[in-house]
Structures are given as structure tokens and as C-alpha cells.
Specification:
The structure is a single chain. This protein is 23% helix and 24% strand. It is α+β, with helices and mostly antiparallel strands. It has one domain. The strands form three sheets. Strands 3, 4, 5, 7, 8 and 9 form a six-stranded antiparallel sheet that branches. Strands 1-6 form a two-stranded antiparallel ribbon.
């Protein structure tokens, strides 16, 4: 007769296996029309991180952020404290300034297993790593380096022996510098000042 502990172990193991789901973290095989490039608008990118319009290369990293459930609005996704999954971090292929023919703008992180199942919403965040100088999106952002976010992609995670779920619906996006909140405040004050002078002239 089996011991109770052995029976519980047999019942518990399948639950552990299916408490995890996976997806394919890449934009080269499953989302080939979604390369990442550097912003082209003057003042919106750090020129030290590559020329405008360049396809990002191995001095950039792709990180996976996710939320449980379906979240289609980017602002809502950002404000919902998305979860960073560091094991998914992967460098882009090729070299920055190269075109897509040499794999610039693309990354291949392979299958990623998350500690959850069901439907999740995944966002790719790309950031300048400076050849190892910066170790995270947050660090690159704080240093004024190029960073960028994809559209949120909702997908059902694969489980067990199922093929990893692709990032269907991922769109191309750009990286660039993000102004600090203080910059937005200064711009706002500048706009108010112009309105004030315009009214006084009238």
C-alpha cells in the first residue's frame, strides 16, 4: 500500500508542471514584420546610441514585461505595474545601423516559461545596454539612453508539450530618449507663458 505522502507527491507534480506557461520571445521568426529602430525625430534620440533610423543591434537588449489577463491599452498596461521577467532578457542580433538583412532590429530569446498560466499580456521593452554598461531598462532610462516599448500583446500561454505561443500581433516600434517629468513641467510653463503674453498683446 502506498504511503499518503507518496500519493500526494504524485498528485502534486502535475499541478506544478501546469502552473507554468510559455511563449516564444522573439520578433524574427514569429513577428518578422516588427523590427526595432531608433527614432528619427530630432531631439528624440541619443545620437551616442546609434544614428537615427538605424536598426538596433547587440548593444541593445529586449526585456519581457507581462500582466495576467488582457490589457490592450498601453497607458493602462504601464500604470498597472507590469512584471519584469529578467530570465527573458536577450540581446538583439547584428549591429546597430545595419539593416534587417543582417538581423539588425531583431531578437531571438527562444521559449520563455512564466510562473503563470492562461492569458497574459506581454510587452517588449528595448533598451541600450552600452555593451554591458547598463544592466536594465530602468537603468538605461535613468541615464538618458535610448529605450522603447512595444504595443501590449495578449496571448494564451502554451502548457506542457504544446508549442510555445508566438508573439502574434507585435508591431514595429522605436527607441529614443524619454524626457524627465521635470521637462514636461518646463514645457507646460513655457506654453502658459506664451499664452499669457499673447493675451496681453490683444
Amino acid at each position: 500500500m502506498k504511503k499518503p505522502s507518496a500519493i500526494l507527491l504524485v498528485l502534486w507534480l502535475p499541478l506544478c508542471v501546469y502552473s507554468q506557461g510559455n511563449f516564444s520571445f522573439d520578433n524574427i521568426f514569429n513577428a518578422p514584420n516588427a523590427p526595432v529602430t531608433i527614432s528619427t525625430e530630432l531631439g528624440t534620440f541619443n545620437p551616442a546610441d546609434g544614428p537615427a533610423g538605424a536598426y538596433v543591434g547587440s548593444d541593445y537588449t529586449a526585456s519581457a514585461y507581462y500582466l495576467n489577463g488582457t490589457v490592450t491599452d498601453p497607458a493602462l498596461f504601464d500604470s498597472s505595474n507590469p512584471i519584469l521577467f529578467p530570465p527573458a532578457d536577450t540581446q538583439f542580433l547584428g549591429t546597430t545601423s545595419a539593416g534587417p538583412n543582417s538581423d539588425g532590429g531583431f531578437f531571438d530569446g527562444g521559449p520563455v516559461t512564466l510562473p503563470t498560466t492562461g492569458i497574459v499580456t506581454v510587452q517588449v521593452r528595448a533598451w541600450y545596454n552600452g555593451g554591458g554598461l547598463y544592466s536594465s531598462y530602468t537603468q538605461a532610462l535613468a541615464a538618458g539612453q535610448n529605450v522603447g516599448e512595444s504595443n501590449p500583446v495578449s496571448l494564451p500561454l502554451a502548457i506542457g508539450s504544446q508549442n510555445p505561443q508566438p508573439l502574434d500581433g507585435l508591431l514595429p516600434f522605436t527607441v529614443g530618449v524619454v524626457p524627465e517629468p521635470s521637462s514636461f513641467v518646463l514645457i507646460g510653463f513655457g506654453g502658459l507663458a506664451l499664452l499669457h503674453f499673447a493675451r496681453r498683446r490683444k
